[in-house]
């Protein structure tokens, strides 16, 4: 929803963020020859008095959102072909700056994040593209897709962060082959996202729009806001569009009043919803969804389904909610979408395909691609154990500090700070008493005395009794970043780890030793050299547990289930599948076949408190008890 409060201070610098990824993509397109030479076109997507036109021909946007970063690259073609076979003509995708630029001057547009290849694939399959580069995209991502170091400087200059491309390398770079007028599939570009919910700076949107245009964006521009914030989030020269789940005629009338003599686009029609830990799995009945889409089309409007296929928020990608209280999102982004998290057709898909066929005047659709086989593999028995304490020598650090340092301020990752995972804080105490965290634990901390568990701090638990001690004892707090909020006015309060003082008998603790446990692939790989031990009858927690999954032949999709385990993270062949937590609703993690090797696969579980020492693999997902969206 919000972009950031920095909009009020350095709007011109902030606007350059939006151009970082756009500029890189422009450069890639200019330098690549894949896709061949394309014929230029003169007239792109236009908004006339009552309808869109594309090359002067009447055109209705029937779109769907699929995020390339939430779908295994090996399945991009499968998911987009399913989209094409449903009757959809336009793909929309957001661009997560946080994934593309994990560190200053470090950019990643390769393999899973090869956005160029993704857009080219859409073009190959005959899909138009609406490009949504942000910089803020929400999308239920940690910090709305913004890099975590920005959470330190939300009210100050972005220039000090140097999280922008060198402008001299961008000045002469313009979009070439991938805009419609240059022969490519991009027919529209979204300016920012939901700025109406923030609307602190009237000139901000104008500057972003002009900055995009000055760098070669010549296709139709649009904005997208909720129905009650459309006016404040708009900018002259860009078409307003609306986001909704229920079609309220008054909302459409209000949009038409604000924007008369223009076609209506429902930019995000929410086909379902996301889930948070400790709640239920949200679903929208197929009949309710298709009836709303039918009415949107009947009234001559264009529509984009958010999401058509949600996919998975692998790793620590998921965001969180701050209102009414802090709640972290689950890894599944199934979204109750027409195509499920694992690529299955749902009743919504079949109803939509029939509906779009009717509105397509009987034109034939491509055949529906065959489904991938799913398999219930034999359980992986954990046979080795590594305590958290024995793994500390493989972390970056340790670091000494008189006071706690937030995760983002740690001198790790080339001094870019720590973005995700856990941080361990250790200090020495000489007496027991009352330990108080205030609001300084973000978001959850396991507390240990001489590395024996004594209690838990979370946002609702602010005090903990420490028994009497004699001599010098080590007090440890293992703090987890459960996810930064992805929307709302708390976006500028997203420091993680210990963000302030911890008091023992009202005296601040001092002299900390701090370990960064970001659990990146490089860290997991380094554990191969760790002193693993044969799993004892009573292993210590927290700890890492290792087992093997055997997948002979061509590996199939499967679902990881962990009955008897409490809370932790699953790694398959070094890849972070995401968190699990016994409180649900999500009970299985999607494990795509392309993530597996034929033969032996390494399974590592990081468990905080309790384990069954066996990992199950099932052929059906379990996203928890369902509840209809109200």
Can you tell me about this structure?
The chain is α+β, with helices and mostly antiparallel strands and 630 residues long. Helix content is 16%, strand content 28%. The chain is built from 10 helices and 37 strands. The longest helix has 21 residues.
Structural class: alpha+beta
Let me know the average pLDDT: 88
CATH architecture of the largest domain: Alpha-Beta Barrel
| SS strand fraction | 25-35%
Describe how the helices and strands are arranged.
Layout: H1 11-31, E1 45-47, E2 52-54, E3 57-59, E4 62-66, H2 76-86, E5 90-94, H3 97-100, H4 115-124, E6 128-132, E7 186-190, H5 204-214, E8 220-226, E9 239-244, H6 249-258, E10 265-270, E11 281-283, H7 286-298, E12 302-309, E13 320-321, E14 327-328, H8 347-359, E15 380-381, E16 384-387, H9 388-391, E17 396-401, E18 422-429, E19 433-436, E20 441-442, E21 444-449, E22 452-458, E23 463-466, E24 473-480, E25 497-498, E26 503-504, E27 507-508, E28 512-517, H10 521-526, E29 533-534, E30 543-551, E31 558-561, E32 567-572, E33 575-581, E34 588-591, E35 599-607, E36 614-618, E37 626-628
Parallel strand pairs: 4-5, 4-12, 5-6, 6-7, 7-8, 8-9, 9-10, 10-12, 11-37
Antiparallel strand pairs: 1-2, 2-3, 13-14, 15-36, 16-29, 16-30, 17-28, 18-24, 18-28, 19-23, 19-26, 20-25, 21-22, 21-24, 26-27, 30-35, 31-34, 31-36, 32-33, 32-35
Helix pairs in contact: 1-5, 7-8
């Amino acid at each position: 929803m919000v972009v950031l409060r920095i909009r009020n201070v350095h709007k011109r610098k902030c606007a350059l963020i939006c151009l970082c990824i756009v500029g890189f993509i422009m450069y890639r397109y200019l330098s690549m020859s894949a896709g061949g030479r394309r014929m230029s076109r003169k007239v792109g997507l236009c908004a006339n008095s009552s309808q869109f036109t594309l090359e002067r021909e009447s055109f209705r946007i029937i779109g769907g959102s699929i995020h390339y970063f939430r779908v295994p690259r090996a399945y991009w073609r499968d998911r987009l072909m399913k989209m094409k076979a449903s009757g959809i003509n336009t793909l929309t995708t957001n661009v997560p700056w946080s994934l593309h630029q994990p560190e200053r001057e470090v950019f990643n547009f390769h393999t899973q994040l090869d956005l160029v290849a993704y857009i080219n694939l859409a073009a190959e399959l005959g899909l138009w593209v609406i490009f949504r580069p942000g910089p803020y995209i929400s999308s239920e991502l940690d910090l709305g897709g913004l890099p975590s170091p920005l959470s330190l400087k939300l009210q100050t200059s972005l220039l000090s962060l140097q999280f922008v491309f060198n402008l001299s390398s961008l000045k002469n770079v313009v979009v070439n082959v991938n805009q419609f007028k240059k022969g490519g599939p991009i027919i529209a570009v979204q300016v920012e996202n939901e700025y109406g919910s923030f609307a602190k700076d009237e000139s901000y949107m104008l500057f972003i729009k002009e900055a995009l245009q000055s760098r070669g964006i010549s296709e139709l521009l649009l904005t997208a806001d909720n129905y009650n914030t459309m006016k404040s989030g708009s900018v002259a020269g860009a078409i307003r569009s609306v986001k909704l789940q229920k079609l309220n005629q008054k909302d459409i009338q209000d949009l038409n009043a604000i924007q008369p003599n223009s076609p209506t686009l429902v930019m995000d029609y929410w086909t379902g919803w996301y889930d948070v830990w400790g709640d239920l799995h949200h679903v929208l009945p197929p009949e309710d969804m298709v009836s709303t889409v039918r009415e949107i089309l009947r009234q001559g409007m264009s529509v984009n389904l958010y999401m058509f296929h949600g996919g998975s928020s692998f790793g620590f990608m998921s965001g969180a909610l701050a209102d009414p209280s802090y709640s972290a999102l689950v890894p599944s982004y199934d979204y109750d979408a027409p195509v499920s998290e694992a690529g299955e057709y749902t009743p919504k898909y079949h109803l939509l395909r029939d509906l779009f066929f009717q509105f397509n005047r009987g034109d034939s659709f491509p055949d529906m691609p065959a489904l991938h086989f799913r398999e219930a593999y034999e359980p992986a028995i954990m046979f080795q154990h590594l305590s958290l304490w024995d793994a500390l020598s493989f972390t970056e650090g340790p670091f000494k500090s008189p006071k706690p340092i937030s995760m983002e301020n740690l001198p790790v990752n080339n001094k870019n700070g720590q973005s995700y995972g856990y941080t361990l804080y250790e200090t020495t105490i000489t007496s027991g008493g009352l330990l108080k965290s205030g609001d300084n634990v973000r978001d959850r901390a396991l507390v240990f005395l001489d590395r024996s568990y004594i209690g838990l701090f979370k946002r609702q638990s602010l005090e903990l009794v420490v028994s009497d001690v004699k001599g010098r004892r080590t007090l440890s707090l293992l703090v987890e970043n459960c996810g930064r909020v992805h929307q709302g006015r708390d976006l500028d309060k997203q420091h993680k780890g210990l963000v302030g003082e911890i008091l023992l008998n009202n005296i601040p603790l001092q002299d900390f030793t701090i370990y960064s446990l970001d659990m990146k692939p490089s860290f997991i790989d380094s554990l191969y050299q760790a002193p693993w031990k044969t799993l004892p009858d009573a292993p210590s927690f927290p700890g890492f547990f290792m087992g093997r999954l055997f997948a002979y032949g061509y590996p199939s999709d499967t679902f990881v289930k962990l009955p008897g385990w409490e809370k932790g993270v699953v790694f398959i062949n070094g890849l972070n599948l995401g968190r699990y937590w016994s409180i649900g609703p999500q009970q299985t993690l999607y494990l795509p076949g392309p993530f597996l090797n034929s033969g032996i696969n390494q399974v590592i579980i990081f468990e905080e408190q309790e384990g069954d020492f066996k990992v199950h693999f099932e052929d059906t997902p379990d996203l928890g008890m369902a509840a209809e969206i109200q």
